[in-house]
UniProtKB/TrEMBL annotation:
UniProt-recorded name of the protein: Tautomerase YrdN
Lineage: Bacteria, Bacillati, Bacillota, Bacilli, Bacillales
Any matching Pfam family: Tautomerase_2
SUPFAM superfamilies attached to this UniProt entry: Tautomerase/MIF (SSF55331)
Signal sequence, start to end: none
Organism domain of life: Bacteria
Biological source species: Oceanobacillus indicireducens
Length: 109
């Protein structure tokens, strides 16, 4: 989780406190992660990393993909072939951090 957060900070240039993470673990038989026809195989140590983000540039996304896989391999010994990353993108109006207010829309953020 710390590796992922450092990559978020670097690639998306967000404040240190912009950290919201949930980890869910599954048994290998509970996940099917094929290669989409790209011709590689994954191990049973596959990770699906999904981030919900506001609009980011393609460069930021590419930097995130590269940095996350590099650092997971370097710091956690997770091979890049076992990391699948996907973004779910939404707008400012889809976020409420507390009090039932949309802080991006109210100008609080």
């Amino acid at each position: 989780m710390d590796v992922a957060h450092q990559v978020v900070l670097e690639a998306f240039q967000v404040p240190e406190g912009d950290r919201y993470q949930v980890v869910t673990q599954h048994e290998p038989y509970e996940m099917i992660m094929k290669d989409t026809g790209l011709g590689f195989e994954r191990s049973d140590d596959v990770i699906l990393f999904t981030a919900i983000i506001t609009q980011r540039t393609n460069k930021m996304k590419k930097d995130f993909y590269r940095l996350l896989t590099e650092r997971l391999e370097q710091q956690c010994q997770i091979e890049s072939k076992d990391v699948m990353i996907t973004f779910v993108t939404n707008g400012a109006g889809e976020w409420s951090f507390r009090f039932g207010k949309a802080q991006f829309l109210t100008g609080d953020l």
